Amino acid sequence: MKVLELMTSDVKCCSADDSLDRAANLMWEGDCGVVPVVGPGRELVGMITDRDICMAAYMKGRPLAALEVRDAMAKELTFCSPEATLETAMSLMKE
After folding, report:
1. Of the candidates 77, 82, 69, which has an alpha carbon nearest to the alpha carbon of residue 93?
2. What's the rounded Cα separation, in Å, for the pair 70 and 4?
3. Backbone angle region of 28, left / alpha / beta, with phi > 0 → left and psi within -120 to 50 → alpha
4. Are 73 and 52 in contact (CB under 8 A)?
5. Mean pLDDT for the stretch of residues 76-95
6. Which residues, including other chains, have CB under 8 Å from residue 72's CB and lie 6 or more apart?
7. Whole-number percent of the chain with pLDDT over 90
8. What is the pLDDT averaged over residues 86-95?
């Protein structure tokens, strides 16, 4: 089986310039805990999780609307092609 057969294709994303409030809202509306962060050309530049948002708000002591996604997102990414096998994807997640 390939990743393509299980992955979500209608993915909501945000930019690094967006507020954490916007990212949290996308997660709420999409019933998910992670949102890809894309650059101007829609290239993947990071990922932001609900935990990232909570910890940034707590550590900085500021409202979500006053913080940017770039301040909390993960910038080191591991990914695979939609054509990759599930075994390959699972192996990458284990690493």
Report:
1. 77
2. 28
3. alpha
4. yes
5. 94
6. 20, 48, 52, 53, 55, 56
7. 95
8. 94
CA-based angle 60:21:66, to the nearest 5? 45
pLDDT at residue 9 above 90? no
Q: Give the number of other CB atoms < 10 A from CB of residue 30.
A: 14
> What letter represents residue 13's amino acid?
C
Mean residue pLDDT across the chain: 95
Q: Please write the tens of the pLDDT for every residue from 43-72.
A: 999 999 999 999 999 999 999 999 999 999
Element (H, E) at 14: strand 14-15
Quick one: tokens of 34?
């992670």
SS (H, E, C) 19-73: EHHHHHHHHHHHCCCEEEEECCCCCEEEEEEHHHHHHHHHHHCCCHHHCEHHHCC
